[in-house]
Amino acid sequence: MIKPSIPKGTRDFGPVIVRKRNYIFNTIRQVFELYGFQPLETPAMENLSTLTGKYGEEGDKLMFKVLDNGDIFEAAGKAANNKELVAAISEKALRYDLTIPFARYVVMNQNDLALPFKRYQMQPVWRADKPQKGRYREFYQCDADVVGSNSLVNEVELLLIYDAVFTNLGLAGVELRVNNRKILSGLAEVIGKQELLTDITISIDKLDKIGAEGVRKELSDRGLSDTDINTIEKFLTIGGTNEEKLNQLADLLQSSATGLKGIEELKFVLNSGLTAFNNEPIIDVTLARGLNYYTGMIVEVKAPATVKMGSIGGGGRYDDLTGLFGLKGISGVGISFGVDRIYDVLEELNLFPETAQQSTKVLFLNLGEANAAAAFKHLQGLRAKGIAAEIYPDASKMDKQMKYANKRGIPFVAIIGESELSENNVSIKNLATGQQEKVAADAVAHYNF
RNA sequence: GUGGUUGUAGCUCAGUUGGUUAGAGCAUCAGAUUGUGGUUCUGAGGGUCGGGGGUUCGAGACCCCUCAUCCACCCCA
Questions:
Q1: What is the nearest nucleotide to A214, using C1' and CA?
Q2: Which ranges constitute the DSSP H helices of A271-415?
């Protein structure tokens, strides 16, 4: 006998969990649709050539490659090294994220798409990472992106989507943190070390984790002078209200045109006057985000301070994403929801509504052929009214059927035994209260389950 | 890729300095109960102690290898 198991870093989602996950997916989807985003699905596999090189060296390593069919033995023999071997025996790989397939789609369909194109996509992606807490080899991403528009109105709309989704999920106290890559570029410019921009952002991004001292040390290791580090430290300690932060930034970055542009952009996004937020976005100058293709606004959503959880969503503007596939000059901006983490937060704060956890409302007990036949009429009547109802398929002992209802979490049991059959009524028992009442047969469809 | 943790029943875990037939709770099944679940009582089934090798009169325990697991780092969602 083989001991059943699933691959490392993958998960089964049982009925209870799928329901709760769907509640999150549905809430997000509903908001995406309300804001005019259109659904897109792309294949689980992409051509290896579409994906390689798009996520850096690390990404290529973490990509799941799909073995070619047929005789790979012969092809493998001709390979001289690992890289050639992979090329010889694999031409497809599992989707690594949703953004690159989206870019590929836009380029392939550029003649048919009405730009700006607003799409959302909720599908699993795969990474051959070493699994650990909150980190899996198969996980879902929920992205919404706009391509083909430089307007900052898109940034505002995407922030509103975050605001709406978390409001609809009943998750109060989330923090929408925003920054702008141009501000970080401006900082590097002011220091005169533009070539170290990536190193600077990577270090700054770790401030929460390793503290000011840690950042200092890392910056120094990456080749920055004490004067540079002092400037960066001054930058990192910028505080106060959004307006005060913007003023301090303007002061610090006055010699950088790029930096000032970033400040202008942030100002617009925050004070567009277009609308009001439930969760007002907060400027966080230390926000950097790892991906270095971002070029404008960047955003990250932090879970309420009461739960120990990092980011539950993030995104930003990137220029020229489709340039990789030969379509230049198309700018995009997008956001992403971390569904697994949102799930954990809702679970911890007990925020899943009852309706997200219930399936069948009524179970009709099966007490023999004639009784079951009577039950069937009620079943169809209830289903027509949108009430989930089912009958226990076997005429088992009553107590077994009751136990089944209990275990399934079905709130009501309907009993049609000999006496009910002759009296033309149904006994309906509420399993939560233990109370039971007889309801006339023709009134069952109107019963308040 | 680096460092560490833990592998014993379906699940969560006990198991003393190495010593007879490896235990508990939960879960499962049956009965108490031929029309009433969630509470209670009685009983039953269920384990090659992750796998392989070694030390020993004797290994679940000690040693080596290996596999799996979870956690941290790197990186990321």
A1: B73
A2: 339-348, 369-384, 398-408
